[in-house]
Amino acid sequence: MKIREIKVKSLIVKSNLSESDYVINPYVGCQHDCIYCYARFMKRFTGHTEAWGKFVDIKINAPDLIPKKTNKFKNKSITIGSVCDPYQPIERKYKLTRKILEKLTPFQSHLDLITKSDLVVRDIDMFKQFMDCIIAISLSILDENLRKQLEPCSSSAEARINALKKLHNAGIQTALFVSPIFPYLTDWRKVIEKTKDFVDEYWFENLNLYSSIKNNVYEFLKKNEPKLIEKYKEIYSIKNIKNNYWEIEEKKIKDFCKQKKINFRIYFHHKRKY
Fold this sequence. Notes:
Strand content: 15-25%
Number of helices: 9
CATH class: Alpha Beta
């Protein structure tokens, strides 16, 4: 793992996300090394020759880039962690995310934070200082053997579930981001049943089989679930326009959540790019 400290010129960036005005990413790269990570496109902006997941750039001056006084972000939403995990292991040493939170509290913007690390509970005291915030933890695979292969350096499923409990018990609004949903592998119903008592909202996103991760996913299936390879090819074939797997799955999720009176958001990608 190559770790280097860098200085950047800007930190709070205009967002391309539909439900956020601005994004903050304290790091470039991620130690979690998830084989399905969509953010690996960021590598081309870094000058790194290492594989994605094998380097992290520390934006060492990040907290200093947040202005002390401004009305620019009043009544705006800020998402932390759109292309990196703000609580990846290196955060234990640098505490950039915590320092950023400290600088953001005077703005009282709406805060969304997304992570798959139980380190997030360290900053419960900071989250309590925001009048409007929601902390989302992503989790889509409960089987630890499979999860370790998909997300080698991330927190266990049990640790994430316990983190959600602690956040909820502390009065912090919580979301569970069921992402990415792997066809025939992600049991989203079981995820909901295990966590529904301490999750305020569920977000769902399907596996987007970008060309940059396609080989990784098929190698994973070849090793663990070879019988699913042909099914995945059918789902993601650009030629098989009749396949409506994701439309059916989305309807199942909506029907289930409505029946159980569960708050949810759908972030499915239906456009075929594969």
